[in-house]
Automatic annotation (TrEMBL):
The gene is fabH. The active site is at C112, H252, N282. Residues 238-325 form the Beta-ketoacyl-[acyl-carrier-protein] synthase III C-terminal domain. One of its GO terms (cellular component) is cytoplasm. This is Beta-ketoacyl-[acyl-carrier-protein] synthase III. Residues 253-257 are annotated as: ACP-binding. Its main location: cytoplasm. Its EC number is 2.3.1.180. Pathway: Lipid metabolism; fatty acid biosynthesis. The last Arg residue of the ACP-binding site is essential for the weak association between ACP/AcpP and FabH. The chain crosses the membrane at residues 307-327. One of its GO terms (molecular function) is 3-oxoacyl-[acyl-carrier-protein] synthase activity.
Amino acid sequence: MKSVKIIGTGSYAPSKIVTNSDLSKIVDTNDEWISSRTGIRERRITTGEDTSVLSTKAALEAIKNANIDPLDIDLIVVGTASPDKFIPSTACLVQAEIGAENATCFDISAACTGFIYALNIGTQFIKTGQCKTALVIGAEVLSKIVDWSDRSTCVLFGDGAGAAILQSSHDENGILSIYTGSDGRNAAEFLGCSAVPVRNPFIKSAEKQESLVTMNGKDIFRFGTKIIPKCIEEVFKEQDCTIEDIKYIVPHQANMRIIDSAAKRLEIDSDKFYMNLDRYGNTSAASIPLALNEMARNGLLHRGDKIILVGFGGGLTFGAALIEWMID
Ligand code: UT7
């Protein structure tokens, strides 16, 4: 089995900032409620750029930072719950924009855990020798599927994208372990968004149905507080390191109170979790790579640092990756 390492990251968020007080003009809410219940102060909302555009901009930064030619990329996987289209995939749209003609491209649907799943797929393709260089992306334009009349959900989400380039390596093993899981029982009641209903000339037409996000916040909250510690425990199995060796945990940015509760269960300081939720809100599959690239940009990561990425979300889906940072 080959070793795999991250050789570059990138991210992009639309320039339009929507503050909590901006939202109070749309729904019955206020800055105090949103910031104290979630930790969110503002989020980025697209004024036209769709998921493939955000993905492409994140990918181009990752390619530049990795110092590779797009033609070297032989796999593109995009984790998204808000693609531009059913067909073609977001990954194919990105491929065309960046000129990665040699890549096999597809999207995966794992909601907020989309980046961890994409990272796992890229890692497995490289480990087994199917490819050498993979571009993995988490990207969302949730603003197009959010119910802007529902104050319990519309205040939470934001748009954005993050990307990483993975490459096979003879000597250095950056991706130390990955754990993923799913639980489809009653999942749509927790967090859902319908696609198109069944309709064809041979049945009575179904009622028109809008594709909007619905969520039972309390259930997802409880799930998040339990599954984050479980995923973190799982990535340490068969590894000779412990949570004390970890410099940062980069969690899915859903709610500061979820992180505080998970930190308490793990008996660690909340400061070990890198957060940028206050500025971006919950960007679903984009949240982990967006945070990771911000850390890299700000010089917080050094060669040899051990970090954990951990996510959970609709599906239900969950997962974590234990990574040794290999970039100087
Ligand atoms: O990415 C993964 C998916 N999503 C998540 O991880 C979200 C997880 N869940 C959460 O973050 C929290 O459950 C929420 C932030 C969504 C809600 O927080 P909460 O503390 O569970 O509030 P709640 O739903 O119990 O609502 C408390 C009150 C209610 O009013 P009453 O019934 O007590 O009078 C709500 O109607 O707050 C009200 N409320 C609001 N008030 C002002 C709900 N949303 C708002 C709002 N502004 N935006």
